[in-house]
Design brief:
2 copies of one chain form a homodimer. Chain A is of the alpha+beta class. Chain A has helices at residues 8-17, 20-29, 37-41, 48-60, 80-108; strands at 35-36, 64-69, 72-77. The radius of gyration of chain A is 19 Å and the shape is elongated. The first copy, chain A, binds a DNA duplex (30 and 30 nucleotides) through α4.
Chain lengths: 109, 109
DNA sequence: ATAAAACGCAACTTCCTGGTTGCACTTTTC
DNA sequence: GAAAAGTGCAACCAGGAAGTTGCGTTTTAT
């Protein structure tokens, strides 16, 4: 059987999560509450602009969605891409598990 | 309840996976077979050195382990960190799920 | 109607990343 | 023992990422 090469978007997904600030933003938003940029910047030692950039990265990865409400733009968590990541982890884990099984069978012989 | 901020190493784990080349290397190695740098470089359009650098990144993240055997260094998949990633995804998903539950309960009232 | 809040855009800086090349070193192989 | 295979190390380069500052625009509040 062919080894399935992971899609390019899977890598970008991981890359979007590969930053402490973004990870923390996503963790906050995962409680289902919608937050503005100012709200997400409060309590951070970063600039509002920096937070904005990170949010755009998360949005491009599909992990977050934004909509303008009045003068502020609200961001919300979007869980769908998480499944893609799980799918990759599962495929890797399964291959690894299969290898272990074969190894055990071989040793027992 | 406090929102648990993800550890800094979780971010580096994601970062290590946030590259197509590294993702592909890890996918190959996840079949349990040990491979040399030359073996992993074969079939790639990249230099052996580039592959080496990627392998070092994976190794620092703990996703791979290496050992010198004669003149070549063998790399093997290391599944433990995968659980850390799953743990993060689960925590995020659970928070999200809880939020949905509360929302449904509220609407039904 | 003014002031303040919340944001977008753009320029700029700094640092990291992905990648290459060149060379030296150690093991194998013939 | 000489050639070839497999690496490691260091320098170097281009481009992208993270972050800041400055300024203009649109809403909201007083």
């Amino acid at each position: 059987m062919l080894i399935e090469t992971p899609g390019r978007d899977t890598a970008s997904l991981f890359a979007a999560l590969g930053d402490r600030t973004r990870l923390s933003l996503l963790t906050k938003l995962s409680d289902g509450q919608t937050r503005s940029i100012a709200g997400l910047s409060a309590g951070t030692d970063l600039t509002r602009q920096a937070i904005t950039k990170h949010l755009r990265v998360l949005e491009e990865a599909g992990l977050v969605i934004s909509s303008k409400v009045g003068r502020e733009s609200q961001f919300a968590f979007r869980p769908e891409p998480i499944d893609d990541i799980r799918a990759y982890l599962d495929s890797v884990s399964q291959q690894w598990g299969d290898a272990l099984s074969r190894l055990r069978a071989f040793v027992k012989t």
